Amino acid sequence: MEHTRAPILCVTDGHAGNRRQAEALAHALGHVAPPHLTLEPSWLARALAPRRFPGASMSLGNAFASTMANPPTLVIGCGRQAALATRLLRRAGSRAIQILDPRLDPRHWDRVIAPVHDELHGDNVIPMLGSLHDVDDLWLARARSDFAQMADFASPRIALLVGGPSKHWSMDDADFEDALARLRQTMSANRGSLLATASRRTPERWRSILRESGADLVWCDDNDGPNPYRGLLGWADAIVCTADSVNMLSEAAATTVPVYVIGADQIRGRPRTFVETLLTRRRIHPLTDDLAAFAIGPLRESARVAGLLHDWLDSPR
Hints:
Oligomer: single chain
Radius of gyration: 21 Å
Order of helices and strands: EHEHHEHEEEHEHEHEHEHEHEH
Distance between the termini: 24 Å
Strand content: 15-25%
Largest sheet: 6 strands, parallel
Strand order of the largest sheet: 2-1-3-4-5-6
Helix content: 25-40%
Number of helices: 11
Shape: elongated
């Protein structure tokens, strides 16, 4: 009996950032609820992906092995483990889109979507500025509806998105505390609301600083209730974001409000190219003491990338 092919499948290692990008591209291509397969890689797959090796199709979990027997028409993967899966499914007959640099020649996939700062080149490579996500006008409207209670906070509402130190960004506790103190002074002058949220990389010391900051809303972990991140983006009159996270900055830059960055001069490595590009385009500004308004052009790469893919997907193989 011949099984009907699934039209699309997203595959990732399950990490939130990778899953979000794969599903965002599927949504932009018109798939409202794309199925998602979380890989279960063996130690060998973790070590060698995306390189192929004997038994590779059995090394990513039972669900993936079953998928190999009936591959989807289109597979979208994000991350290095997924790059092995999308490569194998392409050989099995799927059209394969890989998000992020697979660290291998792009010719092993049909299309590779890679950040500009990765400097990956090839006829089938589509460069993107930042990362893929779902943030657009409809997403923001739904966020405002889902977090309608945030309308009660005084305007201007300043959303503070806090990440944490990384190998590319080395802000210390004192610098973070100083930046937050200056922001509080600005808020006092404007008589608005400061709404802050931490991320999984935020150090415990920074979480304590946030809790003691006097902000009108502080979310540090699940003990503080549901994560209000979507609501903050939806209701913000301006956004202040630490410079460490390409994903967080990309989503903030997709809104229609000014974005100010903490520690832009301290970012290093490849993410620095991304931050500098946004600064040059004047989509983001370094954090200042007045949070002056400026003209906005939302950064929405998911729609642009999907537009480039449509003609290819509509063409016969």
